[in-house]
């Protein structure tokens, strides 16, 4: 299952924190900080999987070989879009490559909702950001992977606010989507 | 009062660059005021702002009651804010949780789908067992809600309920299963169920075997790759239980592997085949050969594909899973895997590192360790100052700083980006590499090592690449101490030292070399050379090195230098544990230096020794006041001993210069050495001590001397200074006479004969110069030359320079390769002539790996008594590591514990198990339904008869019955009104029911008229509470099981 979804920007400012277990605020911040340290230094060619941050690594080695899976978070997947990092922490029951596509679905859904989404949209509409995530993941289990249905689900909750007009400076369109196609619609 | 919206807050933050902290404190203060307001809009806005600030680590637990207030608002907008705040801020100890329960139940039963969603999403975050029991009855009816989005969320929420309250599954699972088996169910819902089943599956695979046919169909149908991946993952846990599945699965999986365009699905197919044990199952058949070839071929393809590091990473993960069971498969791809050890990406490196530990053997150990060493040596040690640069403020919490450049934040997210900096080699990674090297080498008491000289050199080199330790942090008792990964010392160099000590103790033949290494580590003048240039890394090794130079002092080549280093002023600043070991080593070295009774007691010798003892005394004196008790005690003991020895030395007459032999003082030659020599120390297995049987007559309870107290008192009265030195002197001499043992623990012959047995080392060391420092290398070369001096087949690269003698072959090589030829540098390919044979005998090969004939090195194994207990690990040489690994059994941070599910069977074994409320209610309801059907029939008959009489006026006794019934049904049957209405309408049952449905419709119409004013259906809820209740009574019909109505949801 998925243990946490985090979004923060290039300087480590959180934009979305969702922990599917109850965690002390200070520990949450420390974890974000550790992951940011890990992710911020990765070169271009690196893969999208992080080694476990120290907070999680300390207890990860106790896995028993008798069961194929366990409850311990063992996978930290991330993607980096423009100014934002999207992080998913999960156990071994999730497929690493599929999680990458899931993040892509999430971001594409945001893009549809905000029409060419950028970090500012997410800052000012963080309730919508949470709502979108809740249409993809509930309680750490993925409930929807289809873009249309995610968008539909968020729209059913009410109008999605646009970013305040005077905040945007226009000309936000920077290139097209990354070419890697998703494995599920 | 000026009120800020969330928008204002964020804008304000962005306008207050530099003093965000004050701005935030100010804002929180405002929020505290606003949240107490009676204006729900204001309250909810304040809550929203607090939730936003919570993301940056600002506590909002004080507002939990206000969260509840906002949650209970009638407006959806407020509700949503409230629920979000609850999800983000409620913790395990939040007290208002009890009060939230009713609100959750109420909203779950709401008629508006968006409102239902809110508690469904929130429950997984706040649930506890007692609450689970309570909301379960409200949740289950939602499984048949008309909207797919509600159904799928309910399913997942029920799963999270089951995690804290496993009994949930008893009523819920049959209904979920029903959904799964329904072909007409919405694909999204099916996928959500599969996701949940996949999570449940590995806990209790046997319960999910009956679902295999349906899951198989879903897999073959295809269409949803995410779901297919989950199904494959689930099947991988089912196949070990049901071998017949393998035959069935193989064709579709092969088909997917060959045809799918989705890399993730392809990978998970291969992964599933590996993990599900399918490879073993079909081994030997033509089909099996094909599939194995296909899978491994694809994996290799992933490793070598250019430009996609992700595939490389996941392929390593897959290899890692098979390395234990199928080492031969992995070994074939050793080449590409070893490449990954040097990958620029730390994740891939770590993956490869974990993998090579599993595939190391006698043949490739040197090569693998060599690669790792080269990596450690060639990348600079990250200095401590590098780290905090990217570390956000840790203790203070993060302030949402104003973005330095707003245009950044406006950049479109459409472009996926990755930064371009090169990664430093973090200390954690270094430590783990060193640990892996130590682990690989010491595995099974050094099975894989054939050249211990090499190992000693590797250990010495490892010290130099040690990362700086965080001892200061650990001393503070900060949390970091709990998370330090390396052993009980928190210092990897201590572990290296232990290895060095282990080798010295276990492998006698290499003891001189190990001692040489320990000596050079202890020598103060070599400190710069032997230890990392920056930081304080590597100091932990001194504890073991100090022990070694003391214990095997006779083997030291430079005892004087060692003694000087042990007595160096810098030594007294060492950590107390190391210092204590040093203190123990000092008299040992002294004993070996002074203890020779074959040399005459000349004035010269006396002067030298007196001087030496004076130095020892000088060193020990201040330590008698050391804060560490251990150090203090040892210092005091040896101080007294040295003073005695000093007096003995000065009291013994020296001989004249005429050459007559004069006996040195016995205290020096006999007494002191006897303290430290005796039986040689052997390694003892962990736990062996516990197996030593207690002697029957052992009595630890009776006091040895009942008069102890009295004696002590007497002793205090006597003057201490009165001690007769002659007596003491005498006593020492007597003890020697009776108790001393031969002082030489290892004979010179012992030391000489074993190294001769060495065979020429292979050229696998060819790349040594890449990972060993030049001084170590030079020594190795010199040693090698020495060793093969008389070997005509050894080509010495340097010899011709000295002697001018060269072979024709050498000339040819020299001419074609140029002057700077180094035979050692020629890479020699690992020609595996046994490969083909191995392929044939694969079975035996990987069950009983062939061991290369090892060199004649005797390794002392652990001493133990009786059979090995399960508790002592196979890796007996590193008990400390094992212990620390076991101690780490605690729960991980983000872990969601699902172990409770393990004990609950989903099979309907019915009898014996206590029934849940909801089950009891269901049963009651069934009985009630029967009775009611009868009553209703009669009632309807009456109603028909009195068609024109108002239908609402039910007879009083009838109401009573119905109220009871309502209570029973509410739990299971509650569906939103609208749905029910439609369902009723479409019920194909008898006329009487239809009649009722019509009636109800009328009522609903009336209600909607009442509510015409309110735009949201929830708004008028209070106004219609009464009619609603009555309606429910009416509705409570003997209608069909819930699931059936669910399938007719098409409104």
From TrEMBL, chain A:
One short Pfam name that applies is Clat_adaptor_s
Tell where it localizes.
Endomembrane system
What's the source species for this entry?
Lophium mytilinum
Q: What is the organism lineage in this UniProt record?
A: Eukaryota, Fungi, Dikarya, Ascomycota, Pezizomycotina
Q: Which UniProt keywords apply?
A: Membrane, Protein transport, Transport
Which InterPro entries has this protein been placed in? AP_complex_ssu, AP_mu_sigma_su, Longin-like_dom_sf
For whether the record's keyword set contains Membrane, the answer is yes
Q: Where is the AP complex mu/sigma subunit domain?
A: 1-158
Q: Which GO terms describe its cellular component?
A: endomembrane system
Family the entry assigns: Belongs to the adaptor complexes small subunit family.
Q: Which GO terms describe its biological process?
A: intracellular protein transport
* Keyword match Membrane: yes
Q: What is this protein called?
A: AP complex subunit sigma
From TrEMBL, chain B:
Q: Which domain of life is it from?
A: Eukaryota
| Annotated localization | Endomembrane system; Golgi apparatus
GO biological process terms, alphabetically, are: Golgi to vacuole transport; protein targeting to vacuole
- Keyword Nucleotide-binding included in the entry's annotation: no
Please provide the record's keywords in A-Z order. Answer: Golgi apparatus, Membrane, Protein transport, Repeat, Transport
Give yes or no: UniProt keyword Cytoplasm.
no
Q: Where is the composition biased (Low complexity)?
A: 895-905
Can you cite an annotated GO cellular component? Answer: AP-3 adaptor complex
Q: Which residues form the Clathrin/coatomer adaptor adaptin-like N-terminal domain?
A: 20-645
Biased-composition ranges for Basic residues? 961-970, 1026-1035
Mark out the compositionally biased spans (Basic and acidic residues). 791-803, 835-847, 871-881, 977-997
List the residue ranges of the region (Disordered).
Answer: 401-421, 750-770, 791-812, 835-920, 947-1051
Q: Which PANTHER family match?
A: AP-3 COMPLEX SUBUNIT DELTA-1, DELTA ADAPTIN-RELATED
- The molecule here is called AP-3 complex subunit delta
Q: Which organism is it from?
A: Lophium mytilinum
């Amino acid at each position: 299952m998925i243990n946490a979804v985090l979004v923060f920007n290039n300087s480590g400012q959180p934009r979305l924190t969702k922990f599917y277990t109850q965690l002390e605020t200070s520990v949450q911040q420390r974890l974000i900080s550790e992951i940011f340290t890990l992710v911020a230094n990765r070169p271009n060619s690196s893969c999208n999987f992080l080694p476990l941050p120290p907070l999680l690594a300390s207890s990860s080695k106790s896995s028993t070989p008798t069961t194929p899976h366990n409850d311990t978070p063992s996978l930290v997947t991330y993607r980096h879009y423009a100014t934002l990092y999207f992080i998913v922490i999960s156990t071994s029951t999730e497929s690493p490559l599929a999680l990458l596509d899931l993040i892509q679905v999430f971001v594409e859904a945001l893009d549809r909702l905000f029409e060419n989404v950028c970090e500012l949209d997410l800052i000012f509409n963080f309730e919508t950001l949470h709502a979108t995530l809740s249409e993809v993941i509930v309680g750490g289990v993925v409930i929807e992977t289809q873009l249309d249905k995610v968008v539909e689900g968020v729209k059913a909750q009410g109008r999605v606010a646009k970013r305040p007009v005077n905040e945007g400076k226009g000309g936000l369109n920077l290139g097209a989507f990354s070419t890697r196609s998703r494995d599920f619609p | 009062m000026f009120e800020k919206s969330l928008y204002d807050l964020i804008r304000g933050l962005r306008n207050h660059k530099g003093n965000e902290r004050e701005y935030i404190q100010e804002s929180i203060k405002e929020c505290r005021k606003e949240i107490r307001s009676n204006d729900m809009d204001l309250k909810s806005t304040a809550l929203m702002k607090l939730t936003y600030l919570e993301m940056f680590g600002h506590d909002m637990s004080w507002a939990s009651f206000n969260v509840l207030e906002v949650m209970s608002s009638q407006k959806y907008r407020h509700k949503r804010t409230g629920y979000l705040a609850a999800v983000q801020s409620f913790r395990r100890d939040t007290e208002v949780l009890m009060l939230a329960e009713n609100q959750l139940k109420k909203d779950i039963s709401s008629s508006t789908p968006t409102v239902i969603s809110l508690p469904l999403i929130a429950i997984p975050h706040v649930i506890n067992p007692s609450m689970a029991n309570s909301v379960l009855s409200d949740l289950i009816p939602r499984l048949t809600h008309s909207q797919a989005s509600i159904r799928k969320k309910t399913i997942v929420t029920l799963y999270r309920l089951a995690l804290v309250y496993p009994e949930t599954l008893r009523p819920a699972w049959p209904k979920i299963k029903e959904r799964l088996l329904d072909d007409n169910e919405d694909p999204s819902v099916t996928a959500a169920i599969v996701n949940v089943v996949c999570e449940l599956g590995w806990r209790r695979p046997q319960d999910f075997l009956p679902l295999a046919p349906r899951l198989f169909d879903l897999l073959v149908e295809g269409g949803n790759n995410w779901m297919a991946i989950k199904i494959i993952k689930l099947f991988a846990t089912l196949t070990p239980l049901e071998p017949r599945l393998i035959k069935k699965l193989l064709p579709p999986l092969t088909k997917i592997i060959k045809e799918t365009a989705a890399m993730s699905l392809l990978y998970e197919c291969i992964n599933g085949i590996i993990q599900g044990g399918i490879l073993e199952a079909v081994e030997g058949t033509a089909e099996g050969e094909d599939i194995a070839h296909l899978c491994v071929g694809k994996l290799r393809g992933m490793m070598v594909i250019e430009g996609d590091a992700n595939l490389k990473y996941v392929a390593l993960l897959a290899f890692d899973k098979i390395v234990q069971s199928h080492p031969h498969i992995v070994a074939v791809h050793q080449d590409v895997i070893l490449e990954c050890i040097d990958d620029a990406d730390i994740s891939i490196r770590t993956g490869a590192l974990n993998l090579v530990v599993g595939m190391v053997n006698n043949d490739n150990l040197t090569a693998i360790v060599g690669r790792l060493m080269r990596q450690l040596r060639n990348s600079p040690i990250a200095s401590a100052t590098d780290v905090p640069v990217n570390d956000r403020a840790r203790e203070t919490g993060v302030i949402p700083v104003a973005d330095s450049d707003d245009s950044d934040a406006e950049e479109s997210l459409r472009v996926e980006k990755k930064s371009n900096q090169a990664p430093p080699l973090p200390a954690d990674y270094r430590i783990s590499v060193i640990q892996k090297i130590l682990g690989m080498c010491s595995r099974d008491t050094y099975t894989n090592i054939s050249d211990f000289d090499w190992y000693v050199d590797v250990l010495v080199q490892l010290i130099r690449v040690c990362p700086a330790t965080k001892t200061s942090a650990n001393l503070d008792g900060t949390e970091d101490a709990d998370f330090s990964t390396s052993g009980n010392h928190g210092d990897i160099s201590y572990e290296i030292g232990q290895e060095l000590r282990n080798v010295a103790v276990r492998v006698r033949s290499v003891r001189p070399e190990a001692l040489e290494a320990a000596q050079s580590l202890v020598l103060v003048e070599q400190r710069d050379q032997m230890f990392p240039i920056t930081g304080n890394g590597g100091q932990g090794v001194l504890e073991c090195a100090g022990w070694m130079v003391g214990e095997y002092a006779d083997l030291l080549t430079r005892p004087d230098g060692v003694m000087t280093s042990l007595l160096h002023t810098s030594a007294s600043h060492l950590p107390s544990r190391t210092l204590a070991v040093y203190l123990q080593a000092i008299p040992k070295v002294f004993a070996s230096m002074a203890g020779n009774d074959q040399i005459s007691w000349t004035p010269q010798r006396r002067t030298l020794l007196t001087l030496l003892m004076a130095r020892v005394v000088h060193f020990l004196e201040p330590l008698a006041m050391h804060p560490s008790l251990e150090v203090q005690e040892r210092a005091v003991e040896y101080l007294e001993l040295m003073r005695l020895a000093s007096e003995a030395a000065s009291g013994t007459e020296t001989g004249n210069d005429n050459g007559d032999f004069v006996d040195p003082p016995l205290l020096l030659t006999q007494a002191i050495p006897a303290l430290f020599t005796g039986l040689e120390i052997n390694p003892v297995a962990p736990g062996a001590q516990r197996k030593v049987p207690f002697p029957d007559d052992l009595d630890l309870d009776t006091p040895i001397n009942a008069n102890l107290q009295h004696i002590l008192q007497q002793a205090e009265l006597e003057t201490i200074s009165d001690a007769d030195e002659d007596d003491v002197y005498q006593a020492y001499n007597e003890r020697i006479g009776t108790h001393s043992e031969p002082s030489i623990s290892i004979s010179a012959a012992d030391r000489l004969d074993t190294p001769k047995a060495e065979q020429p080392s292979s050229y696998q060391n060819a790349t040594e110069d890449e990972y060993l420092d030049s001084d170590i290398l030079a020594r190795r070369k010199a040693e090698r030359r020495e060793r093969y001096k008389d070997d005509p087949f050894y080509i010495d690269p340097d010899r011709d320079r000295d002697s001018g003698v060269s072979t024709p072959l050498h000339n040819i090589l020299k001419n074609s390769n140029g002057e700077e030829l180094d035979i050692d540098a020629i890479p020699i390919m690992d020609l595996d002539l046994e490969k083909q044979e191995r392929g044939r005998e694969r079975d035996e090969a990987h069950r009983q790996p062939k061991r290369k004939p090892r060199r004649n090195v005797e390794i002392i194994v652990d001493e133990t008594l009786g059979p090995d207990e399960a508790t002592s690990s196979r890796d007996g040489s590193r008990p400390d590591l094992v212990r620390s690994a076991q101690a780490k059994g605690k729960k991980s941070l983000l872990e969601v514990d699902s172990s409770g599910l393990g004990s609950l069977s989903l099979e309907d074994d019915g009898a014996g198990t206590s029934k849940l409320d909801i089950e009891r209610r269901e049963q009651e309801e069934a009985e009630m339904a029967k009775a009611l059907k009868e009553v209703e029939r009669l009632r309807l008959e009456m109603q028909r008869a009195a068609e024109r009489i108002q239908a609402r006026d039910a007879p009083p006794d009838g109401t009573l019955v119905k109220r009871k019934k309502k209570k029973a049904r509410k739990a299971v049957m509650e569906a939103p009104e609208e749905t029910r209405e439609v369902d009723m309408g479409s019920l194909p049952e008898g006329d009487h029911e239809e009649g009722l449905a019509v009636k109800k419709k009328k009522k609903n119409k009336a209600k909607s008229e009442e509510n015409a004013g309110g735009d949201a259906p929830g708004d008028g809820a209070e106004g219609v509470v009464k009619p609603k209740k009555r309606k429910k009574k009416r509705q409570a019909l003997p209608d069909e099981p819930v699931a059936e109505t669910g399938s007719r949801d098409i409104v």
